[in-house]
Amino acid sequence: MSTTPGKVCSVCNEKKTKKDYSAAQYKKNGSTRKCKACVNPPQKVENKEEENQSEKVDLNLVENNNEKQPETNDNNNNGNNEENVNPAPKKKKRRKKKKKGGNKGGGGAGIVYSDEVDFEQEIRLLGNWRKIITQTSPEPTIPIRDLLPNGPFPVGEILEYIDDNTERYTSAEARERERLQSSMYEELREAAEVHRQVRKYAQQELIKPGVKLIDMCTALENKNRELIKANGLKAGIAFPTGCSLNHCAAHYTPNYGDKTVLDYNDVMKVDFGSQVNGRIIDCAFTVSFNPIYDPLLTAVKDATMTGIKTAGIDVRLDTVGKAIQEVMESYEIELDGKVYPIKSVKNLNGHSIGPYEIHAGKSVPIVYRADGTKMEEGEIFAIETFGSTGKGFVNEDMACSHYMKNFDAPHVPLRTKKTKELYNFINKNFDTLAFCRRWLDDGGQTRHILSLKQLCDSGLVNAYPPLCDIKGSYVAQYEHTIVLRPTCKEIISKGDDY
User: Fold this and answer.
1) CA within 20 to 30 Å of 34's CA: 1, 236, 313, 337, which one?
2) Is residue 480 annotated as part of the catalytic site, yes or no?
3) Strand pairing of 268-276 and 279-287?
């Protein structure tokens, strides 16, 4: 009887042939020799677990994607295998799609602009407005708060800081400080949207050659009250509508009886404001229909935007003034064959704005004047520039129409009943916001001249007469309200027009 040639495996102690070993293992001695089966033992348990796991994954695929299981035998093809075919189709889970674009206001129609131009701008150097789909046209009649009852209101134009403040845009700490001021920003943005829609309406429907200025101002102010849902001191007009003509730079609005009419060759500064909870938007533009004044308007608009770009946290006020003056005085204009240099009006300034305080203490010069005062985080500024073909210096002139209660009014005993009534009326309706004589008349305070003079003489109310350069000259103005947020600058009042 013959024996099978081979060697014994040191693991299983079985005698196996040469083919049961790898070449390397076959050459080893008996104490370390292993056959192929012992070197790579079958792992039945683990493979079974892997198969079960694979089945679970396949089942998940069926449930989530509503797909059939992979076919494993012929029975699956005819649909008779109940283990591999779903007994009833399951509902497919759909992901909720996020709405694209639009406003986030809850319950309102929102403020939706189309790409369609609403009307061709007749006023020189102002851009065309887009059509607001959700607002009535040409006259807006839906208050902004009704369009966006829960906000948020449209954000203005964002400009990043430069130089040493570039890291603010991504700073988590700055963003947190900004979040804490979000309610204030919303009040400013609501007032700004009102201002935009009012001035759009004014540019389209009200400001035309031949219009009486008192009619224009009355209609504009009524629309301002309507769109902001005027509510005493909580929301309303921030100051009277300025419509200063030609050499008059600021602080003119017609009193009752003034029959001044806008002419095609006039240069008019329209300056009005809106406020919500004392957060004031101060914004102005220049009206001109005659293209000969384009260089003047271009110079002032360029100077204003330069001031806005230069402004920022820790920026010195004289740095802003220097930049504005350099741009402004690089322009000139030819009128009636004579060339005039365009000058910054040296005694007019931009200013900081506080709650219910149009001039909050800091002045932003429009010429270089040594001043180390710096702008600070969180401050709100009206950046406005005035360019003139005259001396570049204004003086008080003409009948006064603008008044404002002294923000730090002292306690002064008032002698006459009429003066006390007028002062109480001012406190109730305007407090420290500016007002005009027309509004006193409208409120039933007729024959108020003497009482108003007594309030001015006592230091309780300040008068702000019109400010004029020399007669025959022309002055232009552009103005925007900006807020120095912790992360960026926001031009709150920016619109399609400028």
Assistant:
1) 1
2) no
3) antiparallel
